[in-house]
Specification:
The protein is of the alpha+beta class. The chain contains 16 helices and 30 strands. The strands form seven sheets. Strands 11, 12, 13, 14, 15, 16, 24, 25 and 28 form a nine-stranded mixed β-sheet that branches. Strands 1, 4, 5, 6, 7, 8, 9 and 10 form an eight-stranded mixed β-sheet that branches. A five-stranded mixed β-sheet has the order 2-3-18-23-17. A hairpin with a 4-residue loop joins strand 9 (191-195) and strand 10 (200-204). The longest helix has 18 residues, at 556-573. It starts with a helix and ends with a helix. The model has no long low-confidence stretch (mean pLDDT 97). It binds guanosine-5'-triphosphate, sulfopyruvate and manganese (II) ion (MN). Residues 257, 259-265, 283-284, 307-308, 310-311, 316, 438, 488-489, 497, 501-502, 505 line the site of guanosine-5'-triphosphate.
Amino acid sequence: MTGNQKLNAWINEIAALCAPRSVHLCDGSQAEYDSLASEMVKGGTFVKLDGKLRPNSYLCRSDPADVARTEDRTFICARSQDEAGPTNNWRAPAEMKAELTRVFRNCMQGRTMYVIPFSMGPIGSPISHIGIEITDSPYVVANMRIMTRMGREVLDALGAGDFVPCLHSVGAPLNSGQADVPWPCNAKSKYIVHFPEERSIWSYGSGYGGNALLGKKCFALRIASVMARDQGWLAEHMLILGLTPPSGKTIYIAAAFPSACGKTNLAMMNPTLPGWKVSCVGDDIAWMKFGADGRLYAINPESGFFGVAPGTSMQSNPNAVKTLVKNCIFTNVAMTPEGDVWWEDFTKAPPQKLIDWQGKQWEASSGRKAAHPNARFTAPVNQCPVVDPNYDNPQGVPISAILFGGRRPSVIPLVFEAFNWAHGTFLGSIQSSETTAAQTGAVGIVRRDPMAMLPFCGYNMGDYLAHWLQVGRETSPASLPKIFYVNWFRKSGEGKWLWPGYGENSRVLKWIYERVTGTGQAVETPIGYLPSASALDAKDLAVSREDLRELLRVDREGWLKEIPDIRSHYAKLGDRLPQELLDELARLERRLAEKT
Ligand code: GTP
Ligand code: SPV
Ligand code: MN
């Protein structure tokens, strides 16, 4: 047992409820990781990859019915439905607790119950918070060891203090003598449940990603967003990067794009602009608190990347590829006969004799994908060749710019800047993107996703937007980050990308740097400030003049057509939506209608 009374009581309570075969308190050591991994290899959950090609790394194939987050089974059980708001599934907390207590009874039978102490953020940082995950999945333990600071050190830091209890079960009890399967889960019943008032999480039936690694979306976003509201800070679905010009000072930028819309890629990109450097603090989540100087300081609460594998290559994201050389877990990727990994676009042509993500022989001619579109790698942040020197700094890094963005084939320009914080909050609130394979459901449908937080906000979205406006009033305007909107995903009429993206996005970052430091040229337009014709560095850029003009054009007609959609989006957010944002919308409409 531990030195924490609340924790001991909780462990006993959950052991009594879930009836595991044994209880294991995780110390976070390499020896513990290795022994869990070799047990999983024996049980068929893990395949050890070739020790020379991919040292200390494993491949894992999930059940085909458990490959992404399930938003329709994700619940925010706030005191009242109004507090959860119209964008969240809600159930009365007492009722849900009673239902879950039935569901969790004896659910760990025949399995080991692991207790994982973890810190979101550097241990001891004033921005960090501690959680304890109880799980019956050794896959979750192994992933949590990469994704979080985990183990004995965290228990020491916790002392008698408070923590967020995170309970997880794959929901697949074993009767005596019953053989296990490689990926236990519950095909019939899934629950990803949050109790924001008591700050606890109950997750059942899925072993995949954000459903099961509870430090990530469940704690660091849904529960933390509630803590942030109450305590005056921000918990956001944002990457954090450092940007350094050839001669000059590093600034830090945070960016919110929806799932599978380019955060990992931007966070560790190699700029094509000579002399410019990007360094990576985080690729998915940012916690930002005000420092004594009135600026927002961000930490990455995670210590690993749980990144989209397909599309990751030496061309698109060399620093990710270099991060993946060892000590990684690959989920739902394909395997080569030599015992290495592969996924779509990893190399130009697929290797011969691949085994696909479902463990079957694979031929390019089959028309099937070798890797699942939401296949993921789990990799330690400190293996990234461009990890920022301040990645582990308990004080965090000061944020100078915040970017919103998403996949929009038309209308939204490559980049523009908000007039001020409130206008930037408005832009975040109307953020939109085509859906991707990161969540179950149809792909390619445009949905409005405020601040990329639609699936991750732990309370009423109207209150969340009001909180953003409030944060903007907490400090002087000059201390606030400038807000920008970017769109790497414009397409031509023929469906080709208009913008090359990836490392070329550094041209956009350069303009943002110049705007932040006061030298960047911009023109005022109805939607915000756009780079003036010569302000975006297009030297040696393989984009035609016409395409560039299109990328930086204010499509008045297109924007005017957006207005009714924005209005109905706002109507769906309910009566807690701040009037200030409706006023911003009215002003946008008026500016668009004005003759120039
Ligand atoms: P989550 O981990 O789900 O939150 O995703 P993410 O936002 O980190 O997305 P990621 O960087 O993994 O990118 C997802 C997909 O977008 C990959 O297939 C990338 O190849 C693609 N992508 C990223 N950046 C760009 C870009 O600048 N242009 C284009 N066309 N595609 C991009
Ligand atoms: C996302 O979907 O935004 C992810 C992957 O980062 S998951 O951890 O599964 O939520
Ligand atoms: Mn994400």
